[in-house]
Design a protein that fits this description.
This protein is α/β, with parallel strands linked by helices. 41% of the residues lie in helices and 14% in strands. Helix 6 links the parallel strand 6 and strand 7. The longest helix is centred in the middle third of the chain and has 18 residues. The chain is globular. The two termini are 14 Å apart.
């Protein structure tokens, strides 16, 4: 599993978990909604933590115009720093996007993020956004949201994403899928999201599990190396 960093203050605990368990990898990054602090990262500060094989990705990073805890300009600077750090250390990006798809895709293109690729985590946007991200070398990851009754457009996207670019996730402890909705999410619940997507796609559950696992290791090769 991948334990994702959202700020530098709590990053040491994320790192400790990954170092203590060979089946857990980690990322380093500062979420777009994390308030600016003395640890708001420069490229150099992000890179300080990347020279470690348990760190398999840079992020969670991106843009979020829904919560607006930080101004768009502040978020864009932070996002570009993460992209440039990822290119410098040759590790993929974990991308968060909420109500900011246009600006986010533009930055990915302008900053040449296709050089490292990554994952559009907890994807909630339309097919056009997914297709553009795929063309830039990104995987599309679905959380328990896809199982929600009102997520009709997202279900259609989940049907269209090529199987070799599809991932499933929990975004634990949030967004527990049906039939666990309303409970605190946990890694084991990813099964329910995968099962739901398999039914949507009329795909064998075992095959979807195998393919999404292989996609994970293809995207995060350092995670595979730790489990050999």
């Amino acid at each position: 599993m991948l334990c994702v960093s959202v700020d530098l203050e709590t990053f040491p605990s994320v790192l400790t978990i990954a170092e203590n368990y060979s089946n857990v990898s980690a990322s380093v990054g500062v979420h777009p909604n994390t308030e600016s602090t003395a640890l708001d990262p420069s490229v150099e500060q992000i890179l300080e933590h990347c020279d470690n094989d348990v760190i398999v990705a840079v992020g969670e990073t991106g843009l979020d115009y829904y919560r607006n805890d930080e101004t768009p300009d502040t978020q864009k600077i932070r996002f570009k720093n993460h992209i440039n750090a990822a290119k410098e250390c040759s590790k993929p990006l974990i991308i968060h996007c909420r109500e900011a798809a246009g600006d986010l895709i533009e930055i990915l293109k302008n900053e040449r993020a296709e050089q490292v690729g990554g994952v559009m985590h907890c994807f909630v946007d339309d097919w056009a956004t997914a297709q553009t991200a795929i063309d830039l070398g990104f995987y599309i990851s679905f959380s328990g949201i896809v199982t929600f009754k009102n997520a009709k457009e997202l279900k259609e996207v989940a049907k269209k994403v090529p199987l070799d670019r599809l991932l499933v996730e929990t975004d634990s402890p949030w967004l527990a899928p049906v039939p666990k909705r309303g409970k605190e999410n946990e890694p084991a619940f990813v099964y329910h999201t995968a099962e739901y997507i398999a039914k949507l796609r009329n795909c064998d559950m075992q095959r979807l599990g195998e393919e999404t696992s292989e996609n994970f290791y293809r995207l995060f090769p350092l995670a595979r190396a730790r489990n050999l």
